[in-house]
Amino acid sequence: MLAAVSASAVAVFLSLVAGLAGSIQVAVSGTFGRRIGVLEAAAFGAIFAALILVALVALASRSLGGIAAGLGEPPWLWLNGVMSAIVVGGITYAGPRIGTFATIALVIAAQLFMAVLIDAFGMFGLERIPIDWARISGLVLLAAGAALVLKR
């Protein structure tokens, strides 16, 4: 019999898969953007992703009510869509111009910088996690690494 897999193990696995997918997305989106246009490629990717996710929701819950329920939530929660558009548009533009490695390095450095602020201030209803020297040191090292990979 298979042992139960913890939710944390699944989260770690999905995070790693998302990281791999993100790098592939930068490379593919950049090439696609050069062929049909940056905004067009970003829009195509977002529409295709939405169709996949709507199909998964329909299959998993046999309803689209959960998606419709989002309309009843505070509009600030809809920032997830705005942020997705910024990420997809940004990587589609940046990838072919500075390379996949540099794009991902900068995205990760910026994500971690913002994550430290979100944790420190308990933004968006999350638990506060104070900034400490380990987090500051990690940010400095990441920023240095991101700057290094910009050199060709």
Describe the protein.
The protein is mainly α. Helix content is 78%, strand content 0%. The chain contains 6 helices and no strands. It has helices at residues 7-36, 38-61, 65-69, 79-98, 100-121, 133-149. Helix 5 (100-121) packs antiparallel against helix 6. The longest helix has 30 residues, at 7-36. The radius of gyration is 18 Å and the shape is globular. It starts with 6 loop residues before the first helix and ends with a helix. The mean pLDDT is 88.
H/I helix tally: 6
Stretches where pLDDT falls below 50 for ≥5 residues?
none
Number of strands: 0
- End-to-end Cα distance, whole Å, is 51 Å
Helix content: over 70%
Shape: globular
What is the average of the pLDDT values? 88
Largest sheet: none
- Structural Rg: 18 Å
Strand content: under 5%
Order of secondary-structure elements? HHHHHH
**Structural classification:** mainly alpha
Question: How do the helices and strands line up, and which of them pair or pack?
Answer:
Blueprint: H1 7-36, H2 38-61, H3 65-69, H4 79-98, H5 100-121, H6 133-149
Sum this structure up briefly:
The protein has 152 residues and is mostly helical. The chain is 78% helix and 0% strand. Helix 2 crosses helix 4 and helix 4 runs antiparallel to helix 5.
Could you name the key traits of this structure?
152 residues; mainly alpha; 6 helices; 78% helix
